[in-house]
Amino acid sequence: YYYRNNIVTVDKSIDFSRARSHIIVRDENGNMSSFLDKEILIELKGEIRTASVLVPWAKTYELKKLVAARLFQDMKRICRSLQIAIPCDPTIDLLDRIRVIDKETSTNAVFTIKGLRISYSPEGGLMQTLEVFWSEKGSVI
């Protein structure tokens, strides 16, 4: 879907309350590596929140770094969401991927729908509010 002219409103929200700025990746032998994400650390106002994950196959530092990078990217994606109001489209469903292009903001990306709500008003008619999060090619949903 390409929404250029039929977007009624676009609202962005950022909620890093459940994000972790520090990740410890452990392999099956107990070896671990520690990683810190500066962007999430800034969003958390310098608070270091730690998560530990066991990934048996991540036996090298490079693999552990790849796991941590993916976890940080997933956290950033989920913490930043967009609410888009459009005229009702019954073909849209949860977990659909849509491209949103808004002429009023610089929004131009592919998003995954994580929530939708339908409402009606005599002035606006049947409207649909989509809550979406940013996705990219190869994203695991």
What report would you give on this structure?
The structure is a single chain. With 141 residues, this protein is of the alpha+beta class. It has two helices and nine strands, in the order ββββαβαββββ. The chain has a six-stranded mixed sheet. The protein is elongated and about 60 Å long. The protein starts with a strand and ends in a 7-residue tail after the last strand. The model has no long low-confidence stretch (mean pLDDT 86).
Could you give the topology of this structure?
Layout (H helix, E strand, L loop, with lengths): L1 E2 L5 E6 L7 E5 L5 E5 L1 H6 L6 E5 L6 H19 E8 L9 E5 L6 E14 L3 E10 L7
Parallel strand pairs: 1-7, 3-5
Antiparallel strand pairs: 2-6, 3-4, 6-9, 7-8, 8-9
Structure, briefly:
The protein has 141 residues and is α+β, with helices and mostly antiparallel strands.
Regions with little confidence, pLDDT below 50 for 5+ residues: none
Structural class: alpha+beta
Order of helices and strands: EEEEHEHEEEE
Please count the helical segments.
Answer: 2
* Main sheet characteristics: 6 strands, mixed
Q: What's the end-to-end separation, in Å?
A: 19 Å
Strand content: 35-45%
Strand order of the largest sheet: 1-7-8-9-6-2
The total strand number stands at 9
Shape: elongated
Helical residues, percent: 10-25%
Mean pLDDT level: 86
Tell me the radius of gyration. Answer: 19 Å
